[in-house]
């Protein structure tokens, strides 16, 4: 597969580059850091050397005075390197560090300060539709997702089948994050049923037959491994009783579909709807992170059950976005958006659906999913007419 230009823009200063496995961090580094000094902690001998003597990093860097960019791959493998990095930055020798990681859990557990703001936090997301361009296919993306390692594979289905097992084996088992892998595997299936839904941890605990506190820890593991996220409820200037539970999503709709249980009681429409909502969610998160603005992503749900899937709110952005896996727009599809518009007349309501025609119904703009996703370009406004 030819190289696809990523929207990720590197900061001029030192930065952390986080992202789930397979999102293209190493490919980006290879394409953009030709003259950097690389330290790959995935190599066992390299990890052993720096684990035994973290201060050796200073000697290595000082031995290459002509190289000002230093890449440390998978920094979470040895968090004690961070104090050395901090010291080298403080010495003002002009070094810039790029610290990559597929998990923030070990860094948090070690109590490191992530360089006290001297390195920015950035994220590499799955592909965005606009990165792929006209070759972007909605149906394929809903089936296989947008993780580069999957998109590039001639057998994406097979890659997806092993994706989570790789995490269980390499990340969870090797780090000893959970004691009972069987219980965690059951939890993953139960968590997939919560994808795109307000998260009720008690229900998940009951479903997978483990304690609530254990399930809370499992969800934290998914988030720390960057393969899941939550979005909060939009509560600004609330005029109605609002729900309190955040919504839960896997970071990629293909990963979600590979985990979600399928059987006679699981309708295709329900699974497809969750995949479509997840596809939009991961695009909105990527747009926010790559744009480096002040926009937040949330959702709106009243206690009476009226819900808008996504609310994008910032200094120059206020959109209410509803996602429907249908090819036609029905009047009832617009009710939640209009209720939100009543409470927040400043917002721009938008319906994303699986049809092919752009429509305006009253004050709601209805946009085909493919057109909407292709129009999401970081640094540019969310879709407008």
Provide key terms for this protein.
single chain; 385 residues; alpha/beta; Rossmann fold; 2 domains; six-stranded mixed beta sheet; five-stranded parallel beta sheet; globular
Oligomer status: single chain
User: Sheet with the most strands?
Assistant: 6 strands, mixed
Percent of sequence in beta strands: 15-25%
Mean pLDDT: 90
Structural class: alpha/beta
For the largest beta sheet, what order do the strands appear in spatially? 9-10-11-12-14-13
Write the layout of secondary structure elements.
Blueprint: E1 15-18, H1 25-32, E2 37-40, H2 44-52, H3 56-62, E3 69-73, H4 81-90, E4 96-101, H5 105-110, E5 120-123, H6 129-132, H7 138-144, H8 148-151, H9 156-175, H10 181-193, E6 197-198, H11 201-208, H12 212-224, E7 228-231, E8 247-250, H13 253-259, H14 268-291, E9 296-301, E10 307-314, E11 317-324, H15 335-343, E12 348-353, E13 359-361, E14 364-368, H16 369-374
Parallel strand pairs: 1-4, 1-5, 2-3, 3-4, 11-12, 12-14
Antiparallel strand pairs: 6-8, 7-8, 9-10, 10-11, 13-14
Helix pairs in contact: 7-13, 9-13, 10-11, 11-12, 13-14
Notes on the protein architecture:
The structure is a single chain. The chain has 16 helices and 14 strands. It is of the alpha/beta class and 385 residues long. It has two domains: 15-123, P-loop containing nucleotide triphosphate hydrolases (Rossmann fold), CATH 3.40.50; 129-374, no CATH class. The protein has a six-stranded mixed beta sheet with strand order 9-10-11-12-14-13, with helices on both faces. The radius of gyration is 22 Å and the shape is globular.
């Amino acid at each position: 597969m030819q190289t696809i230009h990523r929207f990720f823009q590197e900061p001029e200063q030192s930065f952390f580059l986080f992202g789930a496995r397979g999102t293209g961090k190493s490919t980006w580094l290879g394409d953009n850091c030709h003259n950097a000094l690389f330290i790959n902690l995935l190599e066992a001998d390299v990890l052993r050397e720096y684990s035994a003597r973290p201060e050796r990093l200073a000697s290595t860097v000082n031995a290459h005075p002509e190289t000002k960019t230093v890449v440390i791959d998978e920094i979470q493998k040895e968090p004690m390197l961070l104090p050395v990095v901090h010291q080298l930055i403080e010495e003002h020798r002009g070094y810039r560090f790029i610290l990559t990681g597929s998990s923030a859990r070990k860094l948090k557990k070690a109590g490191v300060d992530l360089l006290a703001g001297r390195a920015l936090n950035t994220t590499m997301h799955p592909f965005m539709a606009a990165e792929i361009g006209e070759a972007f296919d909605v149906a394929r993306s809903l089936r296989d997702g947008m993780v580069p390692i999957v998109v590039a594979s001639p057998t994406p289905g097979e890659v997806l089948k092993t994706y989570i097992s790789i995490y269980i084996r390499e990340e969870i088992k090797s780090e000893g994050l959970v004691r009972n892998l069987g219980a965690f595997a059951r939890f993953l299936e139960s968590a997939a049923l919560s994808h795109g839904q307000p998260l009720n941890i008690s229900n998940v605990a009951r479903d997978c037959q483990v304690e609530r506190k254990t399930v809370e820890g499992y969800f934290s593991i998914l988030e720390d491994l960057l393969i899941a996220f939550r979005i909060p409820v939009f509560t600004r200037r609330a005029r109605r009783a609002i729900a309190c539970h955040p919504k839960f999503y896997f970071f990629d709709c293909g990963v979600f579909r590979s985990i979600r249980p399928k059987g006679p009681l699981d309708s295709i429409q329900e699974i497809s709807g969750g995949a479509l909502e997840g596809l939009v969610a991961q695009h909105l998160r990527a747009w926010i992170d790559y744009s480096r603005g002040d926009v937040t992503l949330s959702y709106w749900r009243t206690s009476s059950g009226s819900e808008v899937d996504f609310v994008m709110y910032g200094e120059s952005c206020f959109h209410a976005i509803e996602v429907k896996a249908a090819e036609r727009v029905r009047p009832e599809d617009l009710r939640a958006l209009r209720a939100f518009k009543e409470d927040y007349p400043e917002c721009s309501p938008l319906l994303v659906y699986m049809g092919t025609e752009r429509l305006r119904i009253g004050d709601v703009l209805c946009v085909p999913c493919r057109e909407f996703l292709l129009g999401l370009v970081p640094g540019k406004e969310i879709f407008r007419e």
